[in-house]
Amino acid sequence: MLKTEVSEKVIIGVDPGTQVMGYGVISVKGQQISLVQYGVIHLSKYSTHELKLKKIFERLTQLIEEYLPDEMAIEDPFYGKNAQSMLKLGRAQGVAMAAALARNIPIVEYSPKKVKQSVTGSGNASKEQVAYMLEKILKMELSREFMDATDGIAIAICHQYHANSPASVSTPGSKKAKKGGWGAFVSENPGRVK
């Protein structure tokens, strides 16, 4: 009996921020998810927004060169009360995406609610609840001082879960549905489309 070798997929998850940016790198072999690396990029020490963006690009480029991810999952910026903060967060996300695009790494965006829902079952879960569930999924203890990093891990795991959902798996002769797009919605909700 021949044994087929299970291929490995590496996913980097990024939680963009202008003060602290979290990231998590996971490896997936078959159904086994393991944590490769996680951490934060401290940006508050940089005096200008431009320096922060430069640091994000440089550090993510280093991580990409070191871990060679196959895909990047990144959290969508969400609208808060301050439009200026939203603009800065969008720039941080764009620079993070540019680091992946420079290496031809596919990128998928997920809303914070979708990430929490995927990992905990509740779109309104706290950071602590997300970290607790990640420890159960990964079967290891995570440092509580890096809550932004655990968000990065959660985004990567969310992507893995959705990459294997029926809506995102292509069948012969069909185009793969864009995650989060209308094709995925229609596939997941056939009774709601007329």
TrEMBL record:
Annotated Mg(2+) 1 binding sites: 15, 148
Record text on cofactor binding: Binds 2 Mg(2+) ion per subunit.
A Pfam family per the record: RuvC
The entry's keywords: Cytoplasm, DNA damage, DNA recombination, DNA repair, DNA-binding, Endonuclease, Hydrolase, Magnesium, Metal-binding, Nuclease
Cofactors that this protein relies on: Mg(2+)
PROSITE patterns: RUVC
Catalytic residues as annotated in Swiss-Prot or TrEMBL: 15, 75, 148
UniProt EC number: 3.1.21.10
Catalytic activity line of the entry: Endonucleolytic cleavage at a junction such as a reciprocal single-stranded crossover between two homologous DNA duplexes (Holliday junction)
Entry annotated with the keyword Hydrolase: yes
Region described as Disordered: 165-194
TM ranges: none
Tree of life domain: Bacteria
Keyword NAD: no
Positions with a binding annotation for Mg(2+) 2: 75
Location in the cell: Cytoplasm
Function comment: The RuvA-RuvB-RuvC complex processes Holliday junction (HJ) DNA during genetic recombination and DNA repair. Endonuclease that resolves HJ intermediates. Cleaves cruciform DNA by making single-stranded nicks across the HJ at symmetrical positions within the homologous arms, yielding a 5'-phosphate and a 3'-hydroxyl group; requires a central core of homology in the junction. The consensus cleavage sequence is 5'-(A/T)TT(C/G)-3'. Cleavage occurs on the 3'-side of the TT dinucleotide at the point of strand exchange.
Cross-referenced PANTHER family: CROSSOVER JUNCTION ENDODEOXYRIBONUCLEASE RUVC (PTHR30194:SF3)
Subunit and partners: Homodimer which binds Holliday junction (HJ) DNA. The HJ becomes 2-fold symmetrical on binding to RuvC with unstacked arms; it has a different conformation from HJ DNA in complex with RuvA. In the full resolvosome a probable DNA-RuvA(4)-RuvB(12)-RuvC(2) complex forms which resolves the HJ.
Family membership noted in the UniProt record: Belongs to the RuvC family.
Name this protein carries in UniProt: Crossover junction endodeoxyribonuclease RuvC
Organismal lineage: Bacteria, Pseudomonadati, Bacteroidota, Cytophagia, Cytophagales
Gene: ruvC
